[in-house]
Design goal:
258 residues; alpha/beta; 2 domains; binds S-adenosylmethionine
Length: 258
């Protein structure tokens, strides 16, 4: 392998970060990385690796740039309505309690939306909602539960009153809701999955993965659910070969394990 080549870069980067860029779509990833390199005046991959090793700030910005961790409370509200009106009641017909995982939870908006919905709709949770992400820094933010006025735009006013405490210009999620979520660092491409989940959310995470990686990942999610369990995916996503994985579509963006 040539020093300074793309292959060399991804191998070095994996040593620095544990992130395996081979699993991501190369053209998009290369474009994102090259545009970032230009912004920090790195002329080639060797210079860039030196910079990433030396400068924690640049490294951090780069991670933000490639993992893209924007999120929103109740992202795609119409899909959350389906979750609450149809999917969860269906799950509760089969079992008395729910075991839930928000995979790729970013700064916490998704698992906290689940926790608020669980409070409002009185979902009987088997255990805390598991919320995982590869990125330690977003998990730290998630754990603090502090959001700007822009960040809480998707939150219904009633929930803002019930589940947030205003702190100056910001809003902090209440302890009651925070305690319902268990945040954990976890790489979906490398770490072991739990078992027996009733509901998994993996939304807007796989967009940069290759088709092969997505396929493997959805198979592992299917294995991690109990029969009848449901996976809720992002609004631009679709599970091809769902049947082969033992999944069937029960509503747009929701697949059930057969
Ligand atoms: C766009 S956010 C999605 C947040 C939330 N699920 C939503 O839909 O609003 C994507 C998240 O996936 C995480 N991610 C990317 N690759 C990952 C991996 N291999 N394992 C776990 N999380 C990963 C990123 O760190 C980022 O926080």
């Amino acid at each position: 392998m040539n020093t300074g080549s793309w292959e060399w870069f991804i191998e070095r980067f994996e040593k620095i970060s544990r992130i395996d860029l081979k699993a991501y779509k190369r053209p998009q990833m290369e474009r994102r990385i090259n545009s970032f390199m230009r912004s920090v005046n790195a002329a080639n991959y060797q210079e860039f690796v030196n910079l990433l090793t030396r400068d924690k700030d640049v490294y951090r910005k780069f991670l933000d740039h490639i993992t893209i961790n924007v999120s929103e409370f109740f992202r795609n509200p119409a899909h959350w309505e389906i979750l609450r009106r149809e999917i969860v009641p269906l799950l509760l017909k089969q079992r008395n309690t729910l075991k839930i995982w928000s995979a790729g939870c970013s700064t916490g908006e998704e698992p906290y939306s689940l926790a608020m919905a669980a409070k409002e709709d009185r979902w009987p949770l088997k255990e805390k909602i598991l919320a995982t992400d590869i990125d330690r820094e977003v998990l730290e933010k998630a754990g603090m539960g502090l959001y700007t006025a822009k960040g809480i735009e998707g939150v219904p006013t009633l929930y803002l009153k019930r589940y947030f405490i205003q702190q100056g210009a910001n809003y902090r999620i209440s302890d009651e809701v925070r305690q319902m979520v268990n945040f954990k660092q976890h790489d979906l491409l490398k770490d072991a999955f739990g078992k027996d989940f009733d509901l998994i959310l993996c939304r807007n995470v796989v967009i940069y993965f290759t088709e092969e990686t997505k396929d493997k990942l959805y198979r592992r999610f299917a294995e991690a659910m109990r029969p009848g369990g449901v996976i809720f995916i992002g609004s631009t996503e679709q599970i091809f070969n769902a049947r082969e994985m033992g999944l069937k579509s029960i509503a747009t963006f929701f697949y059930q394990k057969i």
